[in-house]
Amino acid sequence: MPQLDRYKNRIVYIEFAAVEDFSQLPYPERLSLMFITSGSMKGILNERPISITAPCILCLAEDDKINVIEKQNVVAQSFNFHREFLNSVTLSETQGYSPSTPRIQTGLSLFQRNHPYSGVPRITEKAYPLLFEWFFILGTEVQAQSDERWRCRIKKYLIQILGMLEDLNRSSEQSPVDLVLEYMHTNYPRKIALEDLTKCAHLNRVSLNKMFQERCGTTAMGYLLLHRLKVAGDLLTHTDMNLNDIARATGFEYDTYFIKQFKAKKGISPTKYRNITRKFVADQ
């Protein structure tokens, strides 16, 4: 059932199932993230056979057709949300969602069927603990509604989960650069030093930065900064989180340093960026 926001007396079209039994898939008018933490299952997804072994995440769009043929000791949770939940700002309870507000684009490729992973994106051993933590907190926020900003925090975790899954599935290679990219995409909210990256790649800093320059057009730490700012940009546009919370969520120790780096790379302050991105789409 949709959630009633008890602080603002409005319906929020999301659901979290602490125990997903796969009996009603796909959920009507919902995109779904099924986090399978143990067991295995086989089925047919849009006339294609799929075989799933935990840990994994199954991404289903509202028009997918799935038939579960076999399950073995499956334990799973699911987060389900209407596409309009991806809009940044809502109007009044009577007006509902505005189609002209900025819409989250991060992670939508996971629900498109022209990608090789088609519904079952790759997750790695390093990514699993963080995905598990984020998914747990997301479910807790849905149930608890601990304060009036609960919906904002859910969007934060949704952006981070979808972004990580999308980043992990852009490449299936295991070159030194890919290993470091995976490490960054998994650990960017935490403190990362260049030494951590060289250890991950088993390269010295000169060799690592040369390979990053050839592949990404910047150094390893330069790419990390740009990735953090990319996630921060999504959070600025699509949530009402304050700058300090966004800084901490994206690996900046202080909001002052975050603001300085954002202005240096984007040419404007985070607050001005937030105002411009929302107004730009609303004016289209």
Automatic annotation (TrEMBL):
Keyword Amino-acid biosynthesis recorded: no
Cross-referenced SUPFAM superfamilies: Homeodomain-like (SSF46689)
Top-rank lineage group of the source organism: Bacteria
Keyword entries, A-Z: DNA-binding, Transcription, Transcription regulation
InterPro entries noted in UniProt: Homeodomain-like_sf (IPR009057), HTH_AraC (IPR018060)
Domain HTH araC/xylS-type: 178-276
Protein name from the UniProt record: Helix-turn-helix protein
